[in-house]
Amino acid sequence: MGTITSTEKERELTTQTFTKLLAKLSADPEVAGGKYEELRCRLIKFFEWRGSFIPEELADETLDRIAWKIDKGEEIEKNVVALALGIARFVFLETLKQPEYRRAAMEELSLFAAPPERRDDDDLWFVCLSDCLRCLSDENRELIIKYYQEEGRAKIEERRALAGKLGISPNALFSRAKRIRDKLEHCVSRCVIRKLK
After folding, report:
1. Does residue 129 share a domain with residue 88?
2. DSSP sequence for 82-100
3. Domain boundary residue among 29, 61, 96?
4. Which of 29, 42, 142, 187 has the most neighbouring CB atoms within 10 Å?
5. Last residue of some domain: 96, 126, 153?
6. pLDDT digits (tens, 9 = 90+) for 105-157
7. How many CA atoms lie within 13 A of 68 on its CB side?
8. For the chain, how many helices (H) and strands (E)?
9. Which of 37, 140, 40, 46 is nearest to 93 (CA)?
10. Shared domain check, 59 and 124
């Protein structure tokens, strides 16, 4: 989990630590397992609603942090679900501050109108951008490519036309494009880091 800053992030989650977390959810192991899955799903939705491109990973990080707190003997004063949502907020904020999420020049997106098939000799950034573009919905991929396709006055006209086609204001289009761009940048940074390891 290279992108989450935590003094405990390098710790391995042991079976014993995980068992302690389950015990906090319920004394019955089967019920605890079900509650764990429900909580994980809820956390995934929490991160998805905030636009995270890696909601499953952030949900797992959140659950790991709770397990470590329990394992260290910290008293859990509120229920585990409330604690999880509180920790999830911090985890999400941390991901927004990561230095390795460098700003990419997304104006180059026009090169990827039809993302090519991966080739082993491709530049790593190019490969990751292509992969991340394929993960977007068709609508979002088309929007982000068109948003950055033109230059100068043509860019302004293209964006105005795109907003009209979508039935939204230029400001709403800007916000939507920024969210997609942020997801792409996040995805590309994660991909590059993962491939360099």
Report:
1. no
2. HHHHHHHHHHHHHHHT-TT
3. 96
4. 187
5. 96
6. 344 444 444 444 544 444 677 788 888 888 888 888 888 888 877 777 888 88
7. 15
8. 8, 0
9. 46
10. no
